[in-house]
Automatic annotation (TrEMBL):
SUPFAM superfamilies associated with the record: Bet v1-like
Matching Pfam families: AHSA1
Record CDD domains: SRPBCC_CalC_Aha1-like
Entry protein name: ATPase
Domain Activator of Hsp90 ATPase homologue 1/2-like C-terminal: 23-159, 190-321
Family that this chain belongs to: Belongs to the AHA1 family.
Length: 326
């Protein structure tokens, strides 16, 4: 990457950064759509970022924190204002409190990212607009330009690494902090079909089966906030069945759904599940962030082979649509 310019215009209240890359516009765009890739370059090397939410839609929200050398953390958020894939998106960019809410004591700004094709690859133009000269000077004094330069210096290695998007072709599991896990899976399907597959009981009974020998016997769907859902599985070999129930908290078809989940018959708190879908080259990227009440429950559930069961179902789903298209 070559940063060709960083210009500060105090009259226009803007800082504009232009950088050129040797990869395609789409590849660069996709790096910003995937939280796993984005967190590898959003923070400077000494303050790496962790993205706990990446809701890429107008009105959607991205939440992250950067962790310093001594373990100290600084939170941030984006609120998406416009999105024009794969050409541009604009966000309100601000600082966040530890609970993720906007930090009213710190400044916010608008950030427009524009992606364009070039004869040698692609160009990224980032225009940050401030609400006053005082805010601009405050961010400059905090090292914004230097930090941005260091962070963007990492993008080349990320976009040159095809192992990250390739890993998502099967269920990829990562731990986030002490109580969260992030599941990522790429589907060679359009976003509407992936959403429909999670909300059509007939389709769900064909793919949401987990390991061989199980059937989804109950599929009561929740579609709107406040709705409850219930899924139950039965074993064809006589093993005890199980199921999950919960409440839909958010639903923004076909991009995001948030729900509670608990094992039917179990005591105590369950989990909070946030699913996001975003279109990338060749299909749709699913990201599921699961928040557990504590690390002990998270580890117990993951040790049951949850990710393997999810992959068996996801692979079945992709095969189902591949056969239908043949």
């Amino acid at each position: 990457m070559a940063i060709t310019s960083i210009d500060t215009d105090r009259d226009a209240l803007t800082i504009t950064l232009v950088a050129d890359f040797t990869v395609s516009q789409q590849r660069l765009w996709d790096a910003y759509m995937d939280a796993r890739q984005l967190e590898r370059f959003w923070g400077p090397p000494t303050w790496p970022a962790t993205f706990t939410q990446h809701d890429v839609r107008v009105g959607g929200r991205t939440s992250y924190h950067m962790t310093g050398p001594e373990g100290e953390q600084s939170g941030g958020y984006w609120e998406f204002v416009t999105i024009n894939p794969p050409h541009s998106f604009e966000v309100l960019d601000g600082f966040a409190n530890p609970d993720g809410t906007p930090n009213a004591d710190m400044p916010s700004m608008r950030m427009l990212l524009e992606f364009s094709e070039q004869t040698t690859g692609s160009r990224l133009t980032v225009t940050t607009t401030f609400d006053s000269v005082e805010t601009l000077d405050q961010l400059l004094g905090m090292g914004m330009v230097e930090g941005t330069r260091e962070a963007m210096g990492q993008i080349d290695d990320v976009v040159a690494d095809d192992s990250v998007p390739e890993a998502a072709r099967t269920t990829h599991l990562q731990l986030l902090g002490d109580t969260q896990a992030r599941v990522t899976r790429f589907f060679e399907m359009n976003i509407d079909d992936v959403w429909r597959a999670h909300h059509d009981p007939g389709l769900m009974r064909q793919w949401m089966l987990g390991p061989e020998g199980w059937v989804l016997s109950v599929a009561k769907i929740g579609e709107r906030p406040g709705d409850t859902y219930r899924y139950e599985w039965e074993s064809e070999t006589g093993e005890p069945g199980f199921g999950f129930t919960g409440e839909v908290l958010e639903s923004h078809a076909p991009h995001r759904e948030v729900n509670t989940e608990r094992l039917i018959g179990a005591q105590g708190p369950g989990t909070l599940n946030a699913m996001n879908l975003v279109e990338v080259a060749g299909g749709t990227l699913l990201t599921l962030v699961i928040t557990y009440p504590d690390a002990e429950m998270r580890n117990e559930i993951l040790e049951t082979g949850m990710a393997d069961g999810m992959e068996a179902s996801y692979a079945r789903l992709e095969d189902l649509f591949r056969q239908a298209a043949a």
